[in-house]
Amino acid sequence: MAEQTENLTYRQLADRLGLSLEAARARVRRGGWLKITDNHGTVRVSVPVFALNKTPERTERVAPDVHPVRTPEHNGMFTPDNTALSTLRDMMGFLQTELNERRQEVSDYREENAVLKEQNAQLREKISRIEGERVHPTYTPDVHPVQKPVFTLNVPPEQTQTYGGYGRRRWWWWPFS
Prior knowledge:
Elements (H helix, E strand, L loop, with lengths): L4 E5 H8 L3 H11 L3 E3 L5 E6 H5 L3 H4 L11 H4 L6 H52 L28 E2 L2 E2 L10
Antiparallel strand pairs: 1-3, 2-3, 4-5
Helix pairs in contact: 1-2
């Protein structure tokens, strides 16, 4: 016997199953259900009736004997383990002590940083005062601070010509120069 189906649009399917439009499209892809486009461009999906009667996937995964609202403490099944609680309390106390020590270290470092900033400001002020007292030499227009030596090499003028960055030496015995 053929399986019973209903022809629904994606929007109708999403509303019937309580899903978003994209989730409904993904459900159709996963199920491999038949899609038919009518003359107006509306897509209708042939959805099996048993898929419409199911509860949403979110509640399918919950075990039937566990109520989703109640926790084990409310069911009376939970009995606290005193050794685990005492271990957790000890660890919390240890971590709180460590946190307080780190806070004290940070406070000490901040105080030291403030002192160093003050010393830095004082040293910068002292440097600027010394720079202001320094005497800069002044030069008269006709005296240069560094005198360059003046000399000429005793080289014949034909040897000083350069071609392409290299000096070309002229030989006296070569006739084509």
